[in-house]
């Protein structure tokens, strides 16, 4: 399902064209108009955010390389970063050392100052404030004693289907995206409770099916796990 199909399906299911809406601004004079497309796009992007934060989809991983600087204990994060899958420090000989995720307090106690240097063994999510903006980075322990390469394998926020026209979810498992958008639409429309409950149930069902795909089927194989077997009941049922 591409963006156009999703957009039209949301309007069809809800039987709502979501006409342009005009509101009076806080000054009581200025008017603000929210376009029909903007309303439906918000339903879709809110659904995407819900899904990407609920399930780590293996297909939505990236591998990036960078560098660690001697005496600098911080590692900046990519702008589309969602969560880390693995981080490796690479020495001058090209050897990989995978480092472990710890709490900031652990690193601060184990390596109390930036002069505690060596090959990094641990990392922790660390917040920093830049003017009025907040950014995230990783703090390393110990602080790098020299320049190193670094390779990060991480889950990322993909471009929204709204802007890209297509997405992995739309191409591979569109029910969760559709029902997520419909659930957001029912909230906007202040739909009756039974309608909201129905879409919530359909969304949860689709989300659980996607979780089974991502957390089970795509993380195993028949060699290690064997083939799935169902026990047959005497009269042809399944137990």
Detail the topology: elements first, then pairings.
Layout lengths: L2 H12 L6 E4 L6 E4 L1 H19 L6 E8 L5 E3 L4 E10 L5 E3 L1 E2 L2 H7 L6 E2 L3 E9 L2 E9 L1 E2 L3 E9 L4 H4 L3 H5 L1 H16 L3 H23 L6 H4 L14
Parallel strand pairs: 7-9, 8-11
Antiparallel strand pairs: 1-2, 3-12, 4-10, 5-6, 5-12, 9-10
What's the short story on this structure?
The protein is of the alpha+beta class.
Question: Explain this structure to me?
Answer:
Helix 6 (174-189) packs antiparallel against helix 7 (193-215). This protein has a domain at 61-156. It has helices at 3-14, 36-54, 104-110, 161-164, 168-172, 174-189, 193-215, 222-225; strands spanning 21-24, 31-34, 61-68, 74-76, 81-90, 96-98, 100-101, 117-118, 122-130, 133-141, 143-144, 148-156. The protein is an alpha+beta fold and 239 residues long. The model has no long low-confidence stretch (mean pLDDT 88). The two termini are 34 Å apart.
Strand/helix succession: HEEHEEEEEHEEEEEHHHHH
What fraction of the residues are assigned to beta strands by DSSP?
25-35%
Q: Low-confidence parts, pLDDT < 50 over ≥5 residues?
A: none
The general outline is elongated
- Tell how many strands the DSSP assignment holds: 12
Radius of gyration: 24 Å
User: What is the mean predicted local confidence, pLDDT?
Assistant: 88
Helix content: 25-40%
Number of H/I helices: 8
Structural class label: alpha+beta
Question: What spatial order of strands do you see in the largest sheet?
Answer: 3-12-5-6
């Amino acid at each position: 399902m591409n963006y156009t199909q999703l957009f039209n399906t949301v309007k069809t299911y809800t039987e709502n064209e979501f006409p342009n809406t005009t509101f009076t601004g806080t000054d009581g004079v200025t008017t603000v108009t929210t376009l029909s497309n903007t309303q439906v796009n918000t339903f879709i992007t809110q659904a995407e955010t819900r899904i990407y934060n609920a399930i780590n989809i293996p297909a939505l991983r990236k591998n990036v390389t960078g560098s660690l600087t001697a005496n600098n204990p911080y590692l900046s994060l990519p702008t589309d970063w969602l969560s880390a899958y693995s981080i490796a420090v690479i020495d001058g000989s090209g050897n990989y050392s995978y480092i472990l995720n710890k709490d900031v307090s652990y690193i601060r106690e184990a390596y109390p100052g930036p002069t505690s240097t060596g090959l990094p063994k641990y990392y922790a999510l660390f917040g920093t404030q830049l003017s009025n903006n907040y950014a995230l980075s990783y703090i390393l322990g110990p602080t790098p004693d020299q320049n190193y390469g670094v390779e990060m394998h991480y889950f990322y926020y993909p471009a929204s289907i709204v802007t890209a026209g297509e997405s992995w979810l739309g191409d591979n498992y569109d029910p969760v995206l559709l029902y997520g958008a419909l659930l957001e639409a029912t909230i906007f429309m202040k739909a009756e409770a039974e309608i909201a409950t129905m879409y919530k149930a359909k969304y949860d069902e689709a989300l659980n099916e996607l979780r089974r795909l991502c957390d089970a089927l795509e993380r195993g194989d028949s060699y290690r796990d064997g083939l799935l077997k169902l026990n047959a009941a005497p009269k042809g049922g399944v137990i």
